[in-house]
Amino acid sequence: MERQGGITLSTLVTFCHQLSSALAYLEALKIVHRDVAARNVLVANDNCVKLADFGMARQLAQGEEFYVAEQGGKVPIKWMAPESLKSRIFSSASDVWMFGVCMWEILSFGLKPFHNTSNAEAVAAIGRGERLARPATCPASHYRLMLECWMDDPLLRPTFNTLQPKLR
């Protein structure tokens, strides 16, 4: 399957795999990115992607499993996990949720999540358990991975190390 500019579905899946590798590296360093989105993924000439914009990233201290953000400041509402929306808790698991949304963006050839809804409507939909619909060209197996990333319970979401081999 091919789309604009000769980018194939296979190439897009490779981008997702490369991004999961970068996030696995951050996870190992106990760094929470907090802004995983297609707008922060750069594509080099050789079809190698790089994760950018570490302005919201936080290094977790020894023994910490999550970071609680203070109120205020701009946050990427439509990419955020339920626990981040409700309690401003960010962790590797919330980055996994965001990765699922970013994967959805990539495999939908750049559509924006919840693009026809307000932030409040998106928050309400996520709270009701609604998830982004499967992109038209997305294989069922990859959509299942997205749904795993979007589990309500952060403890039930896969780690980046378990996601990587599924994206090869």
Q: What's the structural blueprint in terms of helices and strands?
A:
Elements: E1 2-3, E2 7-8, H1 9-28, E3 31-32, E4 41-43, E5 49-51, E6 58-59, E7 67-68, H2 82-87, E8 89-90, H3 92-107, H4 119-127, H5 140-149, H6 160-166
Antiparallel strand pairs: 1-2, 3-6, 4-5, 7-8
Helix pairs in contact: 1-3, 1-6, 3-5
Question: Which features does this protein show?
Answer:
single chain; 168 residues; alpha+beta; Transferase(Phosphotransferase), domain 1; two-stranded antiparallel sheet; 11% strand; nucleotide-binding
For the residues shown, what is the average pLDDT? 93
CATH topology: Transferase(Phosphotransferase), domain 1
- SS class: alpha+beta
Strand order of the largest sheet: 1-2
Morphology call: globular
- Count of helices? 6
Query: Which CATH class?
Result: Mainly Alpha
How many structural domains does the protein architecture include?
Answer: 1
Pfam families: PK_Tyr_Ser-Thr (PF07714)
Domain Protein kinase: 1-167
Keywords: ATP-binding, Kinase, Nucleotide-binding, Phosphoprotein, Transferase, Tyrosine-protein kinase
InterPro entries: Kinase-like_dom_sf, Prot_kinase_dom, RTK, Ser-Thr/Tyr_kinase_cat_dom, Tyr_kinase_AS, Tyr_kinase_cat_dom
